[in-house]
Amino acid sequence: MIKGIKKWRLFSLVTALMVFLSGCGEEHLSTLTPAGQVGRDQLNLMVLSTGIMVLVIIVVLVVYLLTIIKFRRSKVGEDVIPKQVEGNHTLELIWTIIPIILLLILAVPTVIATYNLADVSGMDKKDAKGNATAVTVNVKANLYWWEFEYPDLGIITAQELVVPTKEKVYFNLKAADVKHSFWIPAAGGKLDTNVENINKFYLEFDKPSAGLEDGVFYGKCAELCGPSHALMDFKVKSLDRDDFDKWVANMQASKEAETPETDLAQQGQELFTNKTCIGCHAVSGAGTTGARGPSLATFGDRNRVAGFMEKTDENVKAWINDPEAHKPGNTMPQPEDINSGKKFTDQELTALTEYLMGLSVEE
Ligand code: HEC
Ligand SMILES: [Cu+2]
What we know:
Helix content: 25-40%
CATH topology of the domain at 263-357: Immunoglobulin-like
Largest sheet: 5 strands, mixed
Strand content: 15-25%
Strand order of the largest sheet: 3-2-1-5-8
Number of helices: 11
CATH superfamily of the domain at 263-357: Cupredoxins -  blue copper proteins
Distance between the termini: 65 Å
Oligomer: single chain
Mean pLDDT: 92
Bound molecules: heme C, copper (II) ion
CATH class of the domain at 263-357: Mainly Beta
Order of helices and strands: HHHHEEEEEEEEEEHHHEEHHHH
Low-confidence stretches: none
């Protein structure tokens, strides 16, 4: 009976582990499948330190097991005390020098990598015309959404970061309210976003994200920041340079007042303007930081609603109808607060959704 229970326990433990570990190694979200050089450097450091730790554990375990087996009572008898060694120079030297060597093996590459990964001098390089040669993104973390401003390009987006492949992309990280942390597990990080200073680093992406499961890399807030911290996700789209330049041009050309095609979407646009949505949400890609809500200029191109919900009409309606229920503590007002104390009608929600889903800068 007892044996049966034990086996069952072991079985459930292994199953739980398998479920848990099956998330590992997925290309869009795992540190184990690096998206570029930074991710690879960080993975190598992890493998190195884990390797050293495992080596130490194995050596200690072997010594331990050998001692237990060699000096067991049934073998050596009742009253035998093994030879007592005190102050052995050779042994003391060995167990002082080996850890020092191990620490050096660990420290040297770690310090070198730390300095290399913090080298953001390329951020300020300019070409002959005075334009920045590399892409720099100002990241602003807000409770519970992400803003991405491209200061040299005059564009701004939110929730979905767009980056070029095969080059260093530089980041200035900042928080608007409390501490958050910027982490794209496959590409690198995490680095805190603080209110009182700007942290800088860079990341690299080898190939376009289009080939990934969802067509994007997953990003996360990695610093507990409030009740909806776990929902503070963002996505990353990497594009080859040509496609990236096209995207930038489209962003720069996108305008606030573009008239949507369908009647329903036009009605949605009117609601969006009249119900003060426009006061918090930009619908043009050109612009700078400072809005109270995420820019919706690329909403139709995004992979998620509010960073984490599946992108369906139903979810867009559900979000507008009751943001608090989906992301407790977020700062988007409930419909009652901006619609004279009333919920929006289903027809109004449908119109708003139709309008928002049509906001796109991709062809
Ligand atoms: C007071 C400012 C404010 C107003 C007014 C406002 N919102 Fe928001 N909205 C936000 C904030 C802040 C978020 C981000 C919430 C989060 O994810 O934490 C948001 C998120 C959203 C999102 C999800 C964005 C994304 O990238 O997935 C949609 C869609 C949206 N709002 C639509 C609307 C509509 C439609 C209205 C008008 C009926 C409206 N908002 C009015 C502040 C506002
Ligand atoms: Cu957080």
